[in-house]
């Protein structure tokens, strides 16, 4: 697999997986960050997750699927390692341990997805926005006190399943309450525990 890998460089904003395109393999992020999305009703983008260094993208299209069910865009200059579908299939057929680990990986992914769908459907808009902030804080950490992932208000809305206007209003409320601070696209969280307490009833703190 090492001999057959391909290294790709993506500029910020470059799409490297086209939703609906033929599956040709999967990607591992070596450096950088990306967003994974699906197109919903009326062409609206729904961000499924954010990915960072060491994570796989495109695995849900691997196997029996012929087309990618998702798209992926680099959120900053990103370095990718790519393996073709054929090379992956060969590796899985010849390596029982790899096949077993992949099976566990997919089972875990399915469990996370099912829990997320169930929990998000029970959250208010404010709770979904808070959950998004905690997810980004948990996954990417902070730099100089600000979340180490810079997103637009629309991207927050596309992940939280709400509108840009609702995100702006929620951020404004959280800022007035002294829970967060905003500086353009940069956001800092002042009280993580207080935000966790607001959504603790949902028991949803998965690193999905």
Write structural notes for this entry.
38% of the residues lie in helices and 25% in strands. It has helices at 85-94, 96-120, 125-140, 153-160, 164-176, 192-198; strands at 6-10, 15-17, 25-31, 34-39, 45-51, 56-57, 71-74, 78-84, 142-143, 146-147, 180-183, 186-189. Helix 3 crosses helix 6 and helix 4 (153-160) packs across helix 5 (164-176).
How far is the first residue's CA from the last residue's CA?
Answer: 27 Å
- Portion in helices: 25-40%
Please report the number of helical segments.
Answer: 6
Pattern of helices and strands:
EEEEEEEEHHHEEHHEEH
Beta percentage is 25-35%
Main β-sheet description: 4 strands, antiparallel
pLDDT averaged residue by residue: 89
Structural class: alpha+beta
Residue runs with pLDDT of under 50 for 5 or more positions: none
Strand ordering within the main sheet: 1-8-3-6
Query: What is the general shape?
Result: elongated
Overall number of strands: 12
Gyration radius, to the nearest Å? 18 Å
Brief rundown of the structure:
The protein is an alpha+beta fold and 208 residues long. It has helices spanning 85-94, 96-120, 125-140, 153-160, 164-176, 192-198; strands at 6-10, 15-17, 25-31, 34-39, 45-51, 56-57, 71-74, 78-84, 142-143, 146-147, 180-183, 186-189.
Q: What topology emerges from the helices and strands here?
A:
Blueprint: E1 6-10, E2 15-17, E3 25-31, E4 34-39, E5 45-51, E6 56-57, E7 71-74, E8 78-84, H1 85-94, H2 96-120, H3 125-140, E9 142-143, E10 146-147, H4 153-160, H5 164-176, E11 180-183, E12 186-189, H6 192-198
Antiparallel strand pairs: 1-8, 2-7, 3-6, 3-8, 4-5, 4-7, 9-10, 11-12
Helix pairs in contact: 1-2, 3-4, 3-6, 4-5
